[in-house]
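Incident log, structure service

09:12 report received: a user says their structure output differs between two submissions of the same chain.
09:20 pulled the input from the user's history:
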Amino acid sequence: MSEHPAVDLVVPVKPLGMAKSRLRGAADRGVGAPEAHARLALALAHDTVAAVLAVGRVRRLLVVSSDATVAAELAAAGVEVVPDGPVGGLNAAYAHGAALLRGCDPGCAVGALQADLPALRPEELDAAIGSALAAPGGRAFCADAEGTGTTFLLAAPWRVLDPRFGAGSAERHRASGAAELIGGWPGLRRDVDTPGDLDHAAAIGLGAHTRAVLVTSPGA
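09:34 re-ran on a clean worker, output below:
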């Protein structure tokens, strides 16, 4: 195994109409128009992806999404997008993406990152990847700001990713033998599911896409 293995990441993005239901209305002062909500959900993904693309040690980013708008928008930004696999759900999307990446390079390190991290900084993700690669057991995760969910999971070369995302996923990843990363990394830990989460992300510093959507929203 090389000292600095290739690192490939998977980021699943739900269909925009189904994504982030608890954020509905956050982009248009409570109106909840589908178009405004879709713009916000897409902006969260755009900012997450932009941060990933700025991390030098990430060799390949694979977005898993069957949403045509997501595919077109992110492909235009230079991101590789593939449709969901035959099994639905977040963990199935991670597993599908990881299988595609490992199919091209069985010896790569493969990571799973949430798509709703609009305050993510490239240096945070770079540091988390480095810590994860050095973790005992070759598999590590980053818990969210509340300490109950997971925003990032990485498996070193030849280790199975075994994603267990969802409510209470931090404990499930911990119980599965994954090491818990302890870095501060506020942007990496601040996933956005609710308007309150979005406020906290704004306090850290939103990426350009999310900031632009909120600034141009009615009543902003």
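09:41 both user submissions now match this output. Likely a transient worker issue. Closing.
09:42 reviewer note: The CA atoms of residues 130 and 189 lie 16 Å apart. The chain has eight helices and seven strands.
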